[in-house]
Amino acid sequence: MCGWGPGGWSPPFFPPATGHVCGFCCLSYDPCTVSPLQGGLSQDFVEALKAVVGSPHVSTASAVRQHHGHDESMHRCRPPDAVVWPQNVDQVSRLASLCYNQGVPIIPFGTGTGVEGGVCAVQGGVCISLTHMDQIMELNTEDFSVVVEPGVTRKALNTHLRNSGLWFPVDPGADASLCGMAATGASGTNAVRYGTMRDNVINLEVVLPDGRLLHTAGRGRHYRKSAAGYNLTGLFVGSEGTLGIITSATLRLHPAPEATVAATCAFPSVQAAVDSTVQILQAAVPVARIEFLDEVMMDACNRHSKLNCPVAPTLFLEFHGSQQALAEQLQRTEAITQDNGGSHFSWAKEAEKRNELWAARHNAWYAALALRPGRVIVGHVGDGNFHCILLVNPDDVEEQRRVKAFAENLGRRALALHGTCTGEHGIGLGKRQLLQEEVGPVGVETMRQLKDTLDPRGLMNPGKVL
Amino acid sequence: MCGWGPGGWSPPFFPPATGHVCGFCCLSYDPCTVSPLQGGLSQDFVEALKAVVGSPHVSTASAVRQHHGHDESMHRCRPPDAVVWPQNVDQVSRLASLCYNQGVPIIPFGTGTGVEGGVCAVQGGVCISLTHMDQIMELNTEDFSVVVEPGVTRKALNTHLRNSGLWFPVDPGADASLCGMAATGASGTNAVRYGTMRDNVINLEVVLPDGRLLHTAGRGRHYRKSAAGYNLTGLFVGSEGTLGIITSATLRLHPAPEATVAATCAFPSVQAAVDSTVQILQAAVPVARIEFLDEVMMDACNRHSKLNCPVAPTLFLEFHGSQQALAEQLQRTEAITQDNGGSHFSWAKEAEKRNELWAARHNAWYAALALRPGRVIVGHVGDGNFHCILLVNPDDVEEQRRVKAFAENLGRRALALHGTCTGEHGIGLGKRQLLQEEVGPVGVETMRQLKDTLDPRGLMNPGKVL
User: Residue ranges of the FAD-binding PCMH-type domain (chains A, B) (predicted)?
Assistant: First the structure.
């Protein structure tokens, strides 16, 4: 990864051993600009929407539309023509049917915390906000599964599960809608041990574009595995709202960790940190989190959070298990880091001390924002997934151009290493070209065929993925 | 599960707590009957096949066709009109294109070890045997991945990996083709810890029905996770040869276990054994295998293998890890079994003693075959996946009829418990009706749409899945 310093290009320090790196550019938030209403919806149509969900649950107010036309990414705001809040799946079905018959685009909306412009209504249309459908429907502790509506966020679910002995570990940065996380194929710091949404969604209830209701694994079913027919669940996970509207998700739960230990270690080089990571995984240490911060990031964190960490490539690790198991995992890990020239190996058991130890990682986002000019790397190194954070001035058009070019080059760098252009955020608006380069022409044709089959009118979240 | 004893129906002893059971009926092997050549292939067409792969690699001999018209299931032999052996993916592509243009059905063939009639050429056609493409193409130990051609079986791969520190854990009973395992979404005794094929296939190279070459995750790519576009890999895994021909698979490898411990425990009831299983999983004991044999099976094993095991519902467990970790896992597990009335808890570390302990489980199939009349249950209880083994007389038409009805009822029992009709074998020929009941009309419509899109002429392995 190249970094821009004051002197121009720094030598690349891309971790060479990985074949599965991916990158993304997380740019500073671009405040929404109001787009004039394009075409708009007829009064009759708006009345028809009200007839489905009730007047209080339809809005064409400018501020409301603006709010629903952007996410947390740099993509400029593209507001829908109306926002609606259905109360149940039957209303969602009727809304879809209504919009589809009238040729009106449909954009599903959860928490608006995506980072690829997934909710930008590039052709206007109706934003269907699922936030009012917020029930946790069914918890099966013996079967390790739960059913949630789209208004349920991951933190809300884990709060609900607090005394059940189970938890849902997929943890993207935001407190996102779980159904939204299913739609984007989200992931987080725990993926190295617990997997991503792809590994943790058992069944989806989806309203198809024409209003028909699909249960991807069959209505009400939850099981640990199946070989029954085509994997529809897998198809809709990560489909980014372009194939249908997810109205509930059956999720796989995991036993809550008995105890947790956090650790950090500094390294003389990025290579040493990456080698340690590979060796820890090869040793089958069931590490729960393994995160990498480069030295620029460590320096930023020291300054921002008044810490005193070594300014060096650093690994942040977390282990889950019994007390006995943790002691051994820690021991093995320390030995591996030492073999790779690691220093300042520190660890902590109690929650407060663990939080202190991980302060740099927790505050990375804010420390990065405070750093100007600055480019840093933060990554879920256990999955070979890094985030390259670039701070830009939204008013500097030239800088925006350079950053966009950089982001594309970064994606291509990952592709050149047999990786993917997006490890966990989806394709959205901005990576459609890179997706073509990633999967090739037959891959794109195949995806296009699937899209055209399930959404022949091209009304489900237009302009995304393909 | 109901069992037929000499006195008629026994009381059901279906594990009540599980919502994810699935079942299948494994019936005794039905020797192949020769079907008259249906329609057949023109001499010109056979010459065209020879022009692609060379004369030695095309056969229309009756015995060869018979051999390729059945698998290990009860489904009667339906031979193809010809068998061809391509040497490389280019030939596969040309074969597919040739067959597709001429409206000739295509049936991919690996090891012929499936159990759902997946290779029966119900409309005749060309059987494309992939066995000559048997290279292990690319091993990436730092990235935990390997690329294999369809002629590579799981045991061949693990033999190849012997000194690499890695292994591929998915272990269906047969020494099956890994690409065939991907096609059927196979699983095995290790799934409770290591997952099924769905969790362990990173990328597939697929020749589409019309001959185009698709790389489901992009050519040459291997990574630990991605959120890039529609999950084509997931769509082709488990598609049972009905959407394309898999010509290579990129698989996820795992660190080879440092040490292994096996254990067994007898229980006063099926419920006690199942409760123990649930509690072991809730305690996050990372059990590698956890298998259940009912008392009929235990009795059969004692008689067949001259053992002296308690004739009671029994769990067979295996643990992988470091010596230290294993000791603790064993301890916790024993405590849980004791809480549930378990007895005769035995364990072993060395390979020879482990094999002795698991003798009953290893010989279950043969012991069952030796038992007549007999019906037994064997299961991967950690996944809620059981196999109900029924011994039938292939010449007794009435018995065949009753068994078929029983198998359907069994599947429906699983469905009624929110489970699946097939946990690991696929749908094939015999479970198409149950699939409809499992996923419902919209699910079937959606699958049908996908099938019609990718195979508009309906020539890829006709008569399977849908």
Answer: 76-256
